[in-house]
Every structure is written in structure tokens, then in C-alpha cells.
Amino acid sequence: MPKERINLVVIGAGYVGLTTGVTFAFLGHKVSIIEKDKAKLNLLKEYRPPFYEPYLSDLMKLAKDNLYFSDKLQEVINDSQIIMIAVGTPCKENGQVDNRFIDEVALNIGQALSPSGRHVIVIKSTVPVGTNRRVSYIINKELKKRQIKGANNIIFASNPEFLREGQAISDMLYPDRVVFGVSKPEDIEWLKCLYEDILKQSFPPLDFLPWPAKIKSPQLIITDPTSAELIKYAANAFLAMKVSFINEMAGFCELLGANINDVANGIGADHRIGRDFLDAGIGWGGSCFPKDTAALVAMGKELGYQMRLIEATREVNYNQRKYFVDKIQKALKGVRGKVIGLLGLAFKPGTDDMRESPSLDVLRLLLEREAQVRVHDPVIVGNPPDAILTLGVEVFDDPYQMAVGADAILLVTAWPEYKTLDYKKILNNMRGNVFFDGRNILDPHEMENIGFNFKGVGF
Ligand code: UGA
User: What is the DSSP letter of 187?
Assistant: First the structure.
């Protein structure tokens, strides 16, 4: 149990808000989660997460007594010590961040809050640099309009999240660092209480999520709000750049006859570089890297500053998808009328999220070139989203059935179950023998021995 039990309100029950709120409730804090979507709220009230995230429902059950779900901010806001904003920040057409939901929440806070004591308002969402100041402006303006005193008791902080989908609970409990962006160092007092058990790693062990092998106490980084906001974008842009870097090298390896996996191991062994995020493949997608790199470029433009590396990172990533389809086209001597099966739709394993997934561009490009496309994904099985159904592709629950009569199979998502499929059976069911591993998870020699015309990325 933490020394001080914080009364926390989290606004928004998306991936970030729900995972964060549930974890703090598990750690003993009193957490109210505000969600305006009625369908989501009904599920939450039955302690059922509205999306797939490993261990989230287990943790929700353990944290039940400390959790309260509602759509009425005014019911809980005035008893709160910390109010955490975790609503979505989608991307506009021009790459800029759409701040609509943040502004709306700031307005709601300004209209509902009557500060009797101190409140800390924390921005958890990934927001354009400068949003902390804007949120404080909107809230203070509303309080003034209502002639509410006590605005001096409100502290505005930025506390970016570094949660990976599919590993969000583990990233919450065992982070590398925790970042607090505040105007004065003494403003972190309650935030420190909230994070105490995470910073000290002093919470009870979890059967389903044991301590990672090499766990050390997370670093606490205290900075100003603007730097905290930028840390989030810079971290995602750097990781995206690492992946694009290895993919650029992979293309070069193919021309030179070198092997990208060995190159990645060779450079990754240098502790200054690190092996993580050097897996070559069809590239990155998801709700974060595409949006955050686009936002960085757009923020730079607004200030007349060109983000050359980030622009190139994006270009390499999106070319990778086309390059992949071009390779298939070449191997099949044209894809028109060919039956092509895709293994994997999600943007990465461990999630049912298909936002900005490379699979969608591969699908579109193949359909444009008049291929007959079929798909399989272990999580999307039985419940394919509209985005897929409207494309007119056939969705299979069974990868072996999908292979029947196929000319080529493409592996797009690195699901672990795809490592152990019976590939002899897949080949026997196929009409052709072309196999593309877009994530380099299969052994090329084994696949060739089985009889595939096998291709990967970067060798
Ligand atoms: C990312 C960051 O990793 C989190 O730290 C951050 O908090 C989160 O964005 C966010 O902004 O909320 P996420 O989008 O869930 O998390 O996914 P990652 O695990 O980072 O993977 C991103 C993409 O890169 C995936 O499409 C993955 O397949 C690809 N990738 C990753 C590679 O192609 N190669 C690699 O070596 C690693």
C-alpha cells in the first residue's frame, strides 16, 4: 500500500487512460475513470475492457474495490487530488494534432471544478508541445468566468506515457523512466505519492506478470512541462527512426548479398546502439509512430524548422510497404488474378489494433493490382472489422484453409503462433510455392527445405 492513498480521476478510458487508471487502482489508490461513450461505460461497469490488452481484465478484477466508472465528471472532480487527462489526440489530414478532445476536457474541468484545496491536473495524452500552457489557460479562464477562487491551488503537470500496446501493463508497472513536467520542483509531491510503489518497485508480485529478469528501479526525470511534452515525441520518433534505419540497411543488404539479421546483431551488440527495435521487416504502423512522427514534422513546419531525419524516417517506412508488394509482383510475374493469402492484420502481435497497419496498405496495393486477397489474423478471427470487410477480401479463421489454392502467402504480423504453423501442410494446400516473410520470423533454410520459394527482408 502507498503511504498516501491518492484520489485520482482519469478522463478517458482508451488504451492509455484505462491501463493507467486500473494500474493505480491496483496499487491502492482510489480511482474514478470518466468515459462518455455509453457502450464502453457499460462494459467497464462489468469490469470488462472494451479492447484487447493482455492482463488488463485480470488486473481490473484485482483492483475492483478501488475502481469507479462514470460519465459524470462533476460527481467526482471536487474530491479529487489528481485529475489526469487521457483522451485521444487524433491526427488531422495535414499531420497536425487535433486537439478537440483535450480542449473539450479542459473546458469541462473549468466548468466543474470548484477548488477547495490543491488539485494537480496532469496531461497524460500525447499532445503538441505547448498544450500544457493552453490547458491551464482554458481552465483558468473558465474559473474566472464563474468567479471561482482558488485557481492558485491548481498545479498543471505533464506526465507522458511510454506504454506499448500488448505490453501496456508491464510497461506501466516496470517502466524504464517516469517523467514529470512541472513548473516548480515542489509541484511533484502528489505525483510522487501516486507513483511511489512503481518508483520503489514495492508493490505485491503478480502471478500472471512476474518481475522482468533485469528489473532496476525506474529513473525519475523531473523537468519543465514543455520538455516533458517533447520527450514523448522524441522517444517515439527515435524508435521509428531505428526501425527505418534497419529497413534501409535491409534493402542495401539485398543488393550486396549481406544478411540483415547478422548486421542487426553486429551493431546491436554495441551498448550505445542496442539490439531492440532493429528487427527489419515491412515497417512500423499503429496509432503512435505514424501520428507522432507526422505531428513532429508539422510542429517543426509551424516554427519554420525542417525535421529532415523524421521526414526521411517516414518516407523509408511508407516505401517499405510498396517495395514489399513490388517484390511479390516480381516473384509471381504479376499479381493480377493470383490468389494471395496474408498472415496477420494487426500492426504488431499482442493487439487487435489495425490502425495504420502495414497490412492495410499491402492489401490495398494488391487489390489495386487485381489480386484475389485472403486474410487471417489470430485475434481478429470471427470478428473482422468493417475496414477489412468493405475491401472485399475473404477472411479465414484457419490459416490452413486460407492456404488452399493460394499462389503466395505473405506474413505481415509477427504473431508467435505463425512461428509454429505446420508449413508442410500449408505448402501442400497451396497452388504455388511463394512465401514472403515480412517480419523475418521464420528460418529461411527450413522453409526452402520444405519446398517454398522463400523470401524475407534483407538477405
Ligand atoms: C509505441 C512506443 O513503443 C511506446 O513506448 C509508446 O508509449 C507508444 O508507441 C505510444 O506512443 O503510446 P506501440 O505503438 O504500441 O508503442 O508499438 P511498438 O511496440 O513500439 O511498435 C511500433 C511498430 O514498430 C510496430 O508496427 C512494430 O511491428 C514495428 N517494429 C518494432 C518493427 O518493425 N521493428 C522493430 O524492431 C520494432
Answer: G
Q: Which protein residue's CA is at the shortest distance from atom 7 of ligand 1? A: 162
Report the candidate in 345, 349, 347 with the shortest Cα–Cα distance to residue 416.
349
CA of 192 relative to ligand 1 center, distance in Å:
27
* Position in ligand 1 atom list of the atom nearest CA 236: 2
pLDDT digits (tens, 9 = 90+) for 25-51: 999 999 999 999 999 999 999 999 998
Closest residue by Cα to atom 5, ligand 1, is 162
Catalytically annotated residues: 288
CB count, 10 Å around CB of 306? 11
User: Which residue, among 286, 412, 280, 282, has the nearest Cα to 344 in the 3D structure?
Assistant: 412
Ligand 1 mutation target, pool 123, 179, 243, most atoms within 8 A of CB: 243
CA atoms within 13 A on the CB side of 424: 3
pTM: 0.94
- Dump pLDDT digits (tens) for 69-112: 999 999 999 999 999 999 999 888 888 889 999 999 999 999 99
Residue 292 CA: nearest ligand 1 atom is: 11
53 lines ligand 1 (CB under 6 A): no
How far CA 47 is from CA of 50, 56, 239, 267, 310, in Å, comes to 9, 10, 34, 45, 40
Q: Separation of 15 CA from ligand 1 center, angstroms?
A: 14
**E-assigned strand segments in 111-251:** 119-123, 154-158, 177-181, 219-223
Mean pLDDT by 10 residues, the chain (459 residues): 86 96 98 97 95 92 96 96 95 88 96 91 94 94 90 93 94 96 93 97 88 84 96 98 98 97 98 98 96 95 97 98 94 96 95 91 95 92 78 91 98 97 98 97 97 96
What backbone torsions phi and psi does residue 322 show, to the nearest 5 degrees?
A: -70, -40
Cα–Cα dist 425/431, whole Å: 12
* pLDDT score at 367: 95
> Per residue in 108-166, pLDDT tens?
999 999 988 899 999 999 999 999 999 999 999 999 999 988 788 899 999 999 999 98
Beta carbon of 163 within 6 Å of any ligand 1 atom: yes
Separation of alpha carbons 157 and 425, rounded Å? 56
Beta strands in 182-329 (DSSP E): 219-223
